[in-house]
């Protein structure tokens, strides 16, 4: 065979040179990138129009100038200077953060056993789904309906809680704390938002490796050791996600505070709502911007408990 026939065989062979492979791979990557971008475009447009654009507008309005006749678009930092010197705003901010932290911890403590039972103790998938749907039943009604239903039959001096405690002779007269109070607001938030903790916990617990549980028991680990070393690390993403949901929702909640608090309790949300109701848009927008900053700081602090990118 002559050497001149070798290039012809290579050119007509089934194995193309490496450069051809790389070129085809780059073209496929570009095509898949365009397809992915086209599929993601509607979602990005939706988020941009309904989330990013309103945030940008709120930030811009927070720098407008308030006047006796209303407001104009002259930019100023006076709204923020006024808020930084407003002790009432920061007292309500602290109270709101405490309420949100209490709601997160209480929902975790009360919701974890429920999710644990549904995911690891109930063996039948059909029964699991049925019980989970029952747990979701409160979401079938309006949020305000649930808040009102919590307030009037249960709370108040003549409410069910006070009456039960009196009949059990635990107290001799109605407790004012069970009326329109901070305690009532916090109890209501726990009841209204606990499902936001149960749901992600249920799905993460359902994915716990059963063989790892058996291995831990075979190695002599007790329940607490198995929970600490096997269950808790695998459910940490669900804990973090549920905590973020509850923290964000309770920090901005003003409907529950206004309804259950009966106008006697205030929060950052009710203050912002009152400013908007009084057409003080620049002050209300500045208050909302500071609330978003506190929310972002809180979410960042919660995510420090787990590396979601590695855990999920």
Summarize the structure.
With 312 residues, this protein is an all-alpha fold. Helices cover 74% and strands 2% of the residues. Helix 2 crosses helix 14 and helix 4 packs parallel to helix 8.
Account of the 3D structure:
With 312 residues, this protein is mainly α. It has one domain (78-311): MetI-like (MetI-like fold). The protein has 15 helices and 2 strands. It has helices spanning 5-12, 18-61, 78-84, 87-121, 125-135, 143-154, 160-167, 182-193, 195-206, 210-218, 223-251, 255-260, 268-277, 281-303, 308-311, and strands spanning 65-67, 70-72. The chain has a two-stranded antiparallel sheet. β1 and β2 form a beta hairpin. α10 (210-218) packs across α11 (223-251) and α13 (268-277) packs antiparallel against α14 (281-303). It is flat, with a radius of gyration of 28 Å. The N and C termini lie far apart (60 Å). Residues 1-13 have low confidence and may be disordered.
Keywords:
MetI-like fold; two-stranded antiparallel ribbon; 74% helix; flat; mainly alpha
Write the layout of secondary structure elements.
Layout: H1 5-12, H2 18-61, E1 65-67, E2 70-72, H3 78-84, H4 87-121, H5 125-135, H6 143-154, H7 160-167, H8 182-193, H9 195-206, H10 210-218, H11 223-251, H12 255-260, H13 268-277, H14 281-303, H15 308-311
Antiparallel strand pairs: 1-2
Specify the biggest β-sheet: 2 strands, antiparallel
The CATH architecture can be given as Orthogonal Bundle
CATH topology: MetI-like fold
Question: Overall pLDDT, averaged?
Answer: 81
* Count of DSSP strands: 2
Tell me the number of structural domains: 1
What is the percentage of strand-forming residues?
under 5%
Q: Can you identify the CATH superfamily? A: MetI-like
- The helix content, as a percent range, equals over 70%
What is the topology, as strand order, of the major beta sheet? 1-2
**Which value, in Å, is the CA radius of gyration?**
28 Å
Q: List the uncertain runs.
A: 1-13
């Amino acid at each position: 065979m002559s050497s001149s026939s070798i290039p012809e065989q290579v050119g007509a062979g089934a194995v193309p040179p490496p450069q051809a492979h790389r070129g085809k791979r780059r073209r496929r990557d570009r095509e898949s990138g365009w397809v992915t971008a086209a599929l993601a475009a509607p979602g990005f447009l939706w988020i941009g129009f309904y989330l990013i654009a309103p945030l940008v507008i709120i930030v811009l309005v927070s720098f407008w100038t308030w006047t006796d006749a209303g407001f104009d678009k002259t930019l100023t930092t006076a709204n923020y200077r006024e808020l930084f010197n407003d002790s009432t705003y920061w007292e309500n901010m602290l109270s709101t953060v405490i309420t949100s932290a209490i709601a997160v911890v209480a929902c975790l403590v009360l919701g974890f056993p429920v999710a644990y039972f549904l995911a690891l103790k109930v063996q039948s998938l059909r029964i699991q789904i049925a019980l989970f749907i029952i747990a979701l039943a409160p979401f079938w009604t309006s949020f305000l309906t649930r808040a009102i239903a919590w307030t009037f039959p249960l709370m108040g001096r003549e409410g069910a809680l006070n009456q039960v405690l009196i009949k059990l002779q635990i107290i001799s007269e109605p407790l004012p704390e069970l009326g329109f109070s901070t305690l009532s607001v916090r109890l209501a938030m726990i009841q209204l938002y606990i499902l936001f903790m149960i749901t992600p916990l249920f799905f993460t617990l359902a994915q716990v490796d059963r063989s790892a549980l058996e291995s831990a028991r075979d190695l002599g680990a007790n329940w607490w050791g198995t929970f600490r070393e096997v269950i808790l690390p695998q459910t940490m993403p669900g804990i973090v996600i549920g905590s973020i949901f509850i923290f964000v929702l309770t920090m901005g909640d003003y409907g529950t505070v206004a309804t259950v608090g009966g106008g006697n309790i205030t929060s950052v949300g009710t203050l912002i709502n009152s400013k908007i109701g009084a057409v003080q848009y620049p002050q209300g927008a500045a208050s909302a911007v500071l609330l978003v900053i506190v929310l972002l700081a809180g979410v960042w602090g919660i995510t420090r408990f787990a590396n979601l990118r590695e855990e999920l």
